[in-house]
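Problem: given the chain below (686 residues), write out its structure.
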Amino acid sequence: MTELYRIADNIYRILHYTGRRPRQSLLSKYKLIDLAPDGEPELLRADEDPCVTLERGYSLTFSLDAGEDGGFDIRLPLDPADRLFGLGDESRSCIEKRGQVALMKQENVRSYGPVPYLMSSRGWAVLVNCTYAHTFDIGAANPDELHIFGDRGALDLIVFTGTGLHDALYLAGRVMGRPVMLPKSAYGLTYVLNEEANARTLLDDALRFRERNIPCDILGLEPSWMEKRYDYSVDKKWNSGKFPFPSWRPENYYGSWSFMWNLHQLGRKLSLWLCCDYDLLWKEENDAYIDEVKSNADAEINDAHFARGIRMDTITKPGEAWFDHLKKFVDNGAEAFKLDGAAQVIPHPDRLWAGRYTDDEVRNLYPVVYAKQMKEGYEAHTGKRAMIYTCGTYPGTQKYAATWAGDTGCDTRVLLSLINLGMCGHSNASFDMTCDDTRKIHFGFLAPWSQHQGWANWLYPWYSGEDIEESYRRYSQLRSQLFPYIYSMSHKANRTSLPTLRALSLAYPDTDRYDQVYNEYLFGDSLLVSAFDDHLNLPVEDDWYDFHTGALYTGPREFDYTGPDWCGGAIFVRAGSIIVTQDWAHSLCNHRPDKLYVHVYPGKDAAFTLYEDDGTTYGYEHGEIAATRFTLSGNTLRIAMREGAYPNMPSVNAFEVIWHHADGSTATYSVAAADHESSEVIIEDI
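Solution.
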């Protein structure tokens, strides 16, 4: 039987099965993806024909086959014009996927983030609604065919018929979800300390960041914060020898007798490392264990030895949500959690999840469920956004958490992992930055969010030599200055699924000339960034201003870039851009600038929307956002009145407009807050 549904405009669902209709995938059962974004889907056909054809300025014909005992086979002819992107962090060898074979299977280090979503430059895309491992053969065996197959799971395919890559991502976001807005502090620097840190060294490091003028928002602790290192249980406690709390206070105490209070006085937030092997599916199955116990409550028991079943899983407490035991640490003041790969990205061959699902069905799903329960648990307990970051990714992760590239260091392959996640609409991605190389510092601070990993080394900026420290300080200050731009790009990702870090193929989707460019990316709408290799090819479509010198370069241009001594790479600004910045601050969480800087780079007409919200709650999901629109036409800049509002919104900012000229000179125009509080402001550069 073949069933074809329209679940929204230009979004279709294809089910194909032999015999009895199969049960639904856990991705949709747990609402990790949304198969009814516009309400009840419309059934278009239900018959025995194993072929489905969809039309949208192009024709897509799917040949379908499903076994009676599970498994599926999907074939789609490829057009010569199809350039194919996506699949998440399943491998780190390329961006354009045609000719590749990709296994959708969560594996430690090798494949932290497979996402069974593939899109074409012609605008169509497919998402396989399956949590079992399966394979995409993207023209490898047959150059003219996409072949998707698996031994387990139902044939459940979502098809998006967009008009280009950006449209395909937008449509996919309606099903997979949009990237979540992280708390304001998460867009600064997260610095994970050496695992030997204690309360005193934590506070000393927080103070040292301030004294050395290195902006930092979140400090992270590794496994030794726990009394039992690598404690997977729900009985974990603080390591009282390293992080003492007053014994005469309750275990969820927060006050001036705790180190956490001092940390917050220094403007820093705390992140705790977690390992998890808990059976999270009990909660997703709506407390199945409790229902099971209730149903057997009246059974006659003659021997206490047989009062309940014996479980091989000695960690999980069915009926107790995983996040429940973390509430006391949140009450103590923890505001972020690092979900380490630990046991979440490795196989559990003898595990029966929630008493019914084998590991081959759950393995890809588990990291998403973990992120979901952490995000929702923190929100329910505090009413605030969670800074949750995890290394495991599958469809839906972007709705709940940020990710980092796992324990894989920092090189070009890591950049490809971030790019390929972005090609699936996942924006909040980062990696383990270290400060032994200015190139790593450069890339680390110009990622969607920035995390420095200390773990077992002593590569602190102030222990790494004057040159490294100076580079680190300048980049951390630069990121703080760029916060209004970065935050606005994150809002754009949340609205459109267009990621902050973009492959040039996504920035210039109508040409294949950038499909093998692995050392450049667009950071938001306007910044072109190099990574690890400064032999650059400036895109032919635009002219570019050197961010540091103001010099104007005309594309196309191939050259070796040399920047200031402290730089680890190039930053160029697209001609026809508006970038809003602020004065750097020691931390972002409490920073409320009185003035913002509006940098105008002429060359083409341009527009930029500055988004603001409270930075801590999910009010933005309900429209609690303020937006200021900037438009550039020729030599005229228009600053619209701020629209929208959010609770405790500060007064309108003053602006200093900095007009960058082709000869490297600038002109400055001041706009007082009162000037644009009640009317549009127009500035003409002379």
